[in-house]
Amino acid sequence: WVKLGDIVEIINGTSYNKTNLTSQRDAIRILRGGNINKNSRKLDLKNDDVFVSKNLLNNEKTIRKNDIIITGTNDLANIAKCAFADTNLEATQIGAFLRIIRGRNENFAKYVFYILSSDFYEQYLKICVSGTVSTLLNVKNEYIENFLIPLPPLNEQESIAKELDALFSLSKGLGAE
């Protein structure tokens, strides 16, 4: 078992204000919570888009292949929303209420994604934020960093991720999405 913070980097989202907003499509796309489809666990790039000026470009916050995008602040119904980036998304960053989980070794990114997609992770977060009075719950980085996960050998991680990919594909075919 390892602490998640020992094997991943947690990247906070971009903060912006109304003066940074632009309608220019050559600007930076900022993804927000509405861009994460909770059922499919995929990024929805045609929903909830906001564009900001290029001067807010931060390469660290640009979404890369194998990044896991998670909500950092949300209500209880959406507290553990996450999505997996299958490709690099040029000029696309996350907003302040999201976080990127970036593996120090990209080989186990999909395995970590499935753990963060689990009910176990969602229940863990709900316990961490219990007692919070606000309607918006703040998932602190320390909650994520201290989350313990099993870390089998890499070949077993890959096997687990492949099996789960197959099951998710099957469930989509059955209309479970």
What can you tell me about this protein's structure?
The protein is an alpha+beta fold and 177 residues long. 25% of the residues lie in helices and 23% in strands. It has four helices and 13 strands. It has helices spanning 109-116, 119-129, 141-145, 154-173, and strands at residues 2-3, 8-12, 28-31, 36-37, 42-43, 50-52, 68-71, 73-74, 82-84, 92-94, 98-103, 137-138, 148-149. The strands form five sheets. The chain has a four-stranded antiparallel β-sheet with strand order 2-11-7-9. It has a three-stranded mixed β-sheet with strand order 6-3-10, with no helix packed on it. A two-stranded antiparallel sheet has the order 1-13. The chain is globular and about 45 Å long. The two termini are 31 Å apart.
How would you summarize what this structure contains?
By secondary structure, this protein is α+β, with helices and mostly antiparallel strands. It has helices spanning 109-116, 119-129, 141-145, 154-173, and strands spanning 2-3, 8-12, 28-31, 36-37, 42-43, 50-52, 68-71, 73-74, 82-84, 92-94, 98-103, 137-138, 148-149. It has four helices and 13 strands.
How is this fold's topology laid out?
Layout: E1 2-3, E2 8-12, E3 28-31, E4 36-37, E5 42-43, E6 50-52, E7 68-71, E8 73-74, E9 82-84, E10 92-94, E11 98-103, H1 109-116, H2 119-129, E12 137-138, H3 141-145, E13 148-149, H4 154-173
Parallel strand pairs: 3-10
Antiparallel strand pairs: 1-13, 2-11, 3-6, 4-5, 7-9, 7-11, 8-12
